[in-house]
Amino acid sequence: MQRKSLEIVLAAALTALTGCGRGVPRTEPFAAPVVVEIEAGLTSRQIAETLQATGIIRSKWAFLAKRALNRKTVLMAGEYEFVKPLPVSEAFGTLAAGRVKLYPLTIPEGYSRFEVADKVASSGLASREEFLRMTADPGPVKDILPAAESLEGCLFPDTYNLARTSTADDLLAAMVARFREVLAATRKQQTTDLSDWETLILASMIEKETGIASERKLVASVFHNRVRKRMMMQCDPTIVYGLLREDRYRGKIYRSDLQNPHPYNTYIHAGLPPGPIANPGKAALEAAFSPAETDYLFFVAKPGDGKGHLFSKTMRAHQKGVAALRRGERAGRRR
Questions:
Q1: CB distance 25 to 58 below 8 Å
Q2: Can you give the residue range of the structural domain that contains 322?
Q3: Which of 170, 187, 245, 248 meets the CB 3.0–4.6 Å disulfide criterion with 166?
């Protein structure tokens, strides 16, 4: 039988099957979503039988007729979720498009690569040790950030939708690709003369210092002003990060930690730390590239239950803010 004639016969058969009701599914949704695993290597007949057995389609023959009309179409293996029965053409299209069930994995802003590794391990994609080993290689960003010694700072925080068959390599590639995209976009707003690497380091510090949107550019201005005046950064989160790298962080910063000469101690070493201390989000990158124009050189947490920080231009004003914070802390302990 010629190809054209065969297509006419199959089309007629498909129309007959659906027309008589055998290919038309119920319209009501399932009591609970039905998840179907289409394994690699299954034949078209096996796929059709699986879909019929799980109630996704009414007629495996209608599906096979549809398949015969679309011989070159690749039906993708994977895990599929259906909330109701589907017409054969729609079920076929779902598999042809590879619309597999996705699982969201959210990486919060400000996570270090150590915390990201914990999150990945909890998802089952890779062990903590494996992911840390993968992210210790700066290769994926060396072309744009030659100074990078790992992927710290480049694991962009976002929600990533992963198939059950996704790997840690897939996630890592998506995170780095998203980082490169956001870095390029936020760089267009740049008002400073710092390099991308220096800006990324600052963005990570800003991310760890404040989660308040209205403060990010103010915090950025303090750090930029300190860089310009060659002052110490005196950023507590850099102390914590340096201790985490050496597995010596004890839950809070002690006086001895401020005297520890590790490279990330910005109370001892002038200028920026040697690398990012976390993975900043878009807003922190925007603030680092385009800080507010201020004369602020200091900031301290507001006393009591106040949210945010007090910003000041002089050491005297800053010391008053520190004293107010300590009074508030003592009052809180007495309550």
A1: yes
A2: 297-335
A3: 170
Distance CA 260, CA 254 (A): 10
- Helix 282-289 to helix 216-228 angle (10° resolution) is 40
| Residue written as token pair 């990010």 | 216
Q: How many CB atoms lie within 10 A of CB 7?
A: 13
Contact 168, 121 (CB under 8 A): no
Q: Are strands 102-106 and 159-163 parallel, antiparallel or unpaired?
A: antiparallel
User: What is the C-alpha R_g of the chain?
Assistant: 29
Give how far the C-alpha of residue 187 lies from the chain's centroid of Cα atoms, to the nearest Å. Answer: 20
d(CA 173, CA 184): 17
pLDDT digits (tens, 9 = 90+) for 117-151: 999 999 999 999 999 999 999 999 999 999 999 99
User: How buried is 251 (Cβ within 10 angstroms: 0-12 exposed, 13-18 middle, 19+ buried)?
Assistant: exposed
DSSP 76: P
Q: Which two tokens stand for residue 116?
A: 């990201």
Q: Which residues contact 84 (CB under 8 A, 6 or more apart)?
A: 25, 26, 27, 28, 29, 30
Q: How many structural domains is the chain composed of?
A: 3
58 pLDDT higher than 90: yes
Q: Domain check: are 75 and 160 in the same one?
A: no
Claim to verify: residue 31 and residue 111 sit in the same structural domain: no
Taking the C-alpha atoms of residue 331 and residue 315, their distance in angstroms, rounded to an integer, is 24
Whichever domain contains 26, its CATH number is: 3.30.1490.480
* Local confidence band at 2 (pLDDT 50, 70, 90 cut-offs): low
Select from 74, 100, 126 the last residue of a domain: 100
Least Cα distance to 238 among 278, 285, 282, 196 occurs for 278
Residues in Cβ contact with 228 at an 8 Å cutoff, skipping those fewer than 6 apart: none
Would residue 210 count as lying in a domain? Answer: no
The pair of structure tokens assigned to 204 is 């990570």
> Does residue 180 sit within a domain?
yes
Please enumerate in sequence order all residues whose Cβ is within 8 A of that of 287, keeping only pairs 6 or more positions apart, or say none. Answer: 203, 206, 216, 217, 219, 220
**Main-chain phi, psi angles of 266, to 5 degrees:** -85, 5
